[in-house]
TrEMBL record:
UniProt GO MF annotations: metal ion binding; oxidoreductase activity
A biological process term (GO) from this entry: small molecule biosynthetic process
TM ranges: none
InterPro entries registered for this protein in UniProt: DIOX_N, IPNS-like_FE2OG_OXY, IPNS-like_sf, Iron_ascorbate_oxido_reductase, Oxoglu/Fe-dep_dioxygenase_dom
Top-level taxon: Eukaryota
Entry protein name: Fe2OG dioxygenase domain-containing protein
Family to which the UniProt record says this protein belongs: Belongs to the iron/ascorbate-dependent oxidoreductase family.
Gene3D superfamilies linked: B-lactam Antibiotic, Isopenicillin N Synthase, Chain
Amino acid sequence: MANKDLFEKEVKERVPLQEFKEPNPLPEEIAAQYPTIDLVSLDLSQYEEGNSGLEKRKALAKQLENALSTSGFFHLSNVGLAPEVFNRVRSIGQLLMSIPDEEKVQYLAGALTSDEEDRSKSLGGERGSGFKPKKYWSNNNVRDSIEHYNFRDFLHDDIFLSDEGVLKHPKIVRGYLRDISDYFNYLHYEIVRKICNLSDIILEIPEGTLWDNYMRVIDNDPFHSGGGFGRLMRYYNPSPEDEVKTNQSWLRGHSDGSFITVLTSNPILSLQIRDYETGEWKFVSHKPDSLVVNVGDGFEFLSGGYFKSSIHRVHSPVEEQKGETRFQIIYFVDPDRSLVIDPETINSPKLNRLGYHKPKEWEKITFDQWNDNKGRLFGKNAVNNVKGDEPVVVKLFGRLHERWHQVDNAQPPAIAEHERLYGPPTSINV
């Protein structure tokens, strides 16, 4: 067992928190004036364990299948966390973001910009532990106004709370690492586990398959464990000139490289999903004290394209909420990184019956290969300094690096037309 003396000392010396003041949500009559997407909403209080709860789980799985196979997004309500828990984590994030810039640069997740990263030494600002500074990413030659801090290894106490693990973080947050760990552990063991079990029902494989094989935690072995990283994220207002250049997009359209992503519902109307059927951008409405969950690329690939890793972005807040602080808590959930992300891995009767199989052009790859190579592209100038929503189309291992061209049995129907107009997907040195 690792020495945790430093952590115990930091708890005793920690700075008191100032409560985060969450912005007020829009009144319903005003929110109704904006295009919003009607997401499936799962009531997690209806989830019951054991044989006696099977019919209730099947009912939830039916709802979940509708979400996963269409927009790839859904709301989760009654998740078992009190409002005070969410706000405590936000307050910790607020404290962490308050330290001076000269201290932040001592705890960077990588370099100051994506193009400066040495990926042989760092996971970069996207996935590495520490701060991603503002201006790290580029979109149409505009540097971003987003700051975030990533935490890794919180499912492994002997790593996360060891003296070495504690020293990786700024002093101001060290005494609150148990709070961070408790929050993301709850998401993993309660929320992610239940989503995996419901997905097993959808895929007609034994309950526990996804969790036991790909999401379980092996002590002190993050690579072969389910996990990923947690993020505390703050958005700052860009200049009016930059908003014009980016078409008011604060975080460009993208699909997540994760397996699934779990984030807090936000009262600021800003998160948008690109409608799977029409291509129209629609806002995600707010449900207090609930979570928003979306499919990542890893789960889309494992399902052969049946589950959709949909494109989403963060747009400038609507007029009534300009100037409010958008703060987000996100858990990017990764499976065992050695998982081969093809449908043949799980041999699902449902997918086999519907005809979802690995396309010939897909190379056989692990989740780690995908996540690592995709993570290198997100903020690169060569990919993102273009006008409009869509970045340069890049193929990685025979698969489009962003899921702009949605999948029909893993066959992107828009590629042929895109290639006719713009040429084939490019190769980028990652």
